[in-house]
Specification:
This protein is of the alpha/beta class. The protein has helices at residues 3-21, 29-36, 76-82, 109-122, 135-146, 169-175, 179-182, 189-199, 208-218, 223-232, 264-272, 288-291, 293-304, and strands at residues 41-46, 49-56, 61-65, 87-91, 128-133, 151-157, 250-255, 277-281.
């Protein structure tokens, strides 16, 4: 056997071994709920889904919307602080966490805004404060532009909207027929770790427990398919001009070391939204609520109470 043939066989075996090592089956929702639900978790049947949410504390309601590839766990530190004076409601958005995929495979910002309206109506909320990070912030500003009468105050954290359209390698693969089906099963933990290290300014915060939780929730039945479905609608972005319709008092917060969305876009939101306030955190990445939880939660409370 020639050296070249041996090399080809070796590469084939290595490739097959890599695929086998990174091949993960879906995890059933009940198994994940036993591991990742909270004592105060609730589950609501809505729009053909069982929506996972937390509701704790008393006072004016504050709704917290997480980023893409995240879950309501991102708000744990904020919930502990803010629930002392407010009713804090966080939820796993369709396509993420324990809620799982949308039955109609719809993941536009407008779908999410309509979903949020039905969710708040189901909870019989008349007016509330709304906070969003990343994708959650995009949903929040779309919602605020459509339903100003529902909001008391608005907080946008590291929000998409003004960045140029860009398709990452992973999103490109997710849009490619046949290849995208591979992503429904091949989920390297190393890729999850790399994503988190991009999100955080301080890589040392990305520990094995954090990686495992994100990896496990991504494997929730239907969530990986939801990822490829979202990639297919990724270019269907809401018009950024909608932010100029926002009338709710608004605070824009951003991590100065955000490697996902440049802090330059914080100033664009600040400029476009009438009388918006701005706070940028040093040594902080794309998720200030996790990486700079104490200061960001204090600033949000001060803003809501008119002390900012």
């Amino acid at each position: 056997m020639s050296l070249w043939r041996l090399l080809r066989w070796a590469l084939l075996l290595v490739g097959l071994g890599w695929l086998a090592f990174n091949w993960y089956s879906d995890l059933p929702p009940h198994e994940l709920a036993a591991r990742y639900a909270f004592p105060d978790s609730h589950f609501m049947e809505m729009d053909g889904m069982i929506v996972h949410y937390r509701m704790c504390g008393r006072g004016e309601p504050i709704i917290l919307l997480h980023d893409a590839n995240s879950s309501l766990h991102t708000w744990v530190a904020w919930t502990e602080v803010l629930s002392k004076n407010y009713q804090i409601i966080s939820l796993d958005l369709p396509g993420f966490g324990l809620t799982g995929p949308h039955p109609q495979r719809s993941y536009s910002a407008f779908m999410y805004a309509d979903f949020l309206e039905r969710f708040t109506q189901a909870l019989q909320l008349r007016r509330f404060h709304l906070v969003g990070n990343g994708l959650g912030a995009q949903i929040a500003w779309v919602y605020a532009s459509q339903r100003p009468q529902r909001l008391r105050k608005l907080v946008l954290s590291n929000a998409p909207g003004f960045e140029p359209k860009h398709t990452s390698l992973v999103n490109g693969l997710a849009k490619t027929p046949v290849i995208n089906r591979i992503l429904w099963r091949i989920t390297p933990r190393a890729a999850v770790r790399a994503f988190l290290e991009e999100v955080y300014a301080d890589d040392s915060r990305v520990n094995s427990a954090l990686v495992r939780r994100h990896h496990d929730l991504l494997r929730r039945a239907g969530n990986r398919k939801a990822f490829t479905d979202r990639a297919a609608t990724g270019d269907n972005r809401p018009p950024a001009d909608l932010v100029e319709k926002i009338t709710a008092p608004t605070l824009v917060v951003w991590g100065a070391e955000d490697a996902v969305l440049s802090p330059e876009y914080a100033y664009e939101f600040h400029r476009r939204i009438r009388k918006a306030l701005l706070r940028i955190y040093q040594n902080t990445g794309h998720w200030p609520q996790e990486e700079n939880a104490e200061q960001s939660a204090a600033d949000v409370q001060a803003f809501i109470e008119g002390r900012f």
